[in-house]
Structures are given as structure tokens and as C-alpha cells.
Amino acid sequence: MAKQTAWSFSRLKSYETCPKKFWHTSVQKDFVEVQSDAGNYGTEVHKAIQQRLANDKKLPLHMTHLEPIIARFAEAPGTKYVEQQLALNGDVEPTGWFDNDVWCRAIIDLAIVNGDHALLCDWKTGKMDDDFTQQRVAAAVFAVYFPEVKTFDLVYYWLKDKKPTKQSVERSDLPAIWNKILPRIRKYMVAHSTTDFPPRPSGLCKRYCPVTTCPHYGGE
Hints:
This protein is an alpha+beta fold. The protein has one domain: Alpha-Beta Complex (Lambda Exonuclease, Chain A), CATH 3.90.320. It has helices spanning about 10-15, 20-25, 35-55, 65-75, 135-145, 175-195, 205; strands spanning about 80-90, 95, 100-115, 115-125, 150-160, 165-170. A hairpin with a 2-residue loop joins β3 (about 100-115) and β4 (about 115-125). α5 crosses α6 (about 175-195). The longest helix has 21 residues, at about 175-195.
């Protein structure tokens, strides 16, 4: 069985994009995926916002245009949790991020809990889209840690466009969220148990794959 079977939404997406690339860059780790300039900027933005919200540290000068956005979240009522690392075991119970029984990991960029309501915000620096699966899964994980929360307001804040997209789910929606994502997780787990990670060629092979030994490397 391959090691590092614990899943997160980002690992699941990476596996689904190309199992072979995922095997080499995230499991076997015999090839290194170099982060793009856009990826580096996203990491920098997340760290700066974390410092602003957690420690009231001013944003860097080249990010001051984001201050009005972040200030609204900073001033919102409720208890704030910034860049929280949440982990669940196979029984869907809280566990440590690096514990041996970890099954699922999720990082919550910002959570604001106010009574039986929680707002979960994910900062996005890329192109807008309408897929809320990542935030819906985050809500399902977050709900395990906060059983008092009944309503989850989900937000993607698209910093380039200075626009949010929003969706709300109730605690009663969570079983359906788990049921929808579990078949994808099972395929991921089976791949690890069988070490079967076949290539999935796409347009990404030509310019964006570091796995030079793949027969599809450099293809169209």
C-alpha cells in the first residue's frame, strides 16, 4: 500500500487531474512540482491576510488595495479562527494533523462563529468559478468540531475581481455532502491500496508536468 493515504480536497483534485503525476509528485516524491508565479502569489496573499486577521499586522504595500475587503471581515461579529488545520480520523472524529489515524485534512482560511451560525471564507487569487464542492466539504469537516453550528455561510472571495460568491448549507445538508464526495475518496483510497496510478493525458502534459519519464510528457 502506498503511504500518505490521508486525503484533502486539494490532494483529491490533484489525483483526479492525473493519477500518475500525483503518484510521482505527492506520494513517491521522485519528481518535484515547481510552484508557478501565480501559486507563489497566492501563498503570499494567504500569509499576509493571516497576519492581518490574527495579529492585526498591516498588509504589505502592494496589497493595501485589499484592506477594505479584509477589514470588513476583521470587524464582523463573532469568534474568528484563521488558517485552522482540521483533521478527522476514519470514524469522522477530530484527530491531530499528523496523527497516525488521520483520514482527512482541511485548512479553513477564515471561520467566524457567531452562535449557531458560522461563516467560512476561502481567499481565491485565480479565476472565478461556481464550484462550491471544496467549501461544502470544508463545512462538513468544520461541523465535526463545532456541533453547535446549524447554518454554514460559505464564501469564496475572489481577490482579483474583488467579488464574493456565496452559498449556505444547513447541518441537515451535511450527510448529502459526505455521500457525494465519498465515491471520489474511495477511488483515491483504492489507488493507494493497489498503487495503481495510471496517466491521464491532457493539455497540461505539454507545459505543466514535471514527470519527464511519463510517455505523455511534452504531448499535446
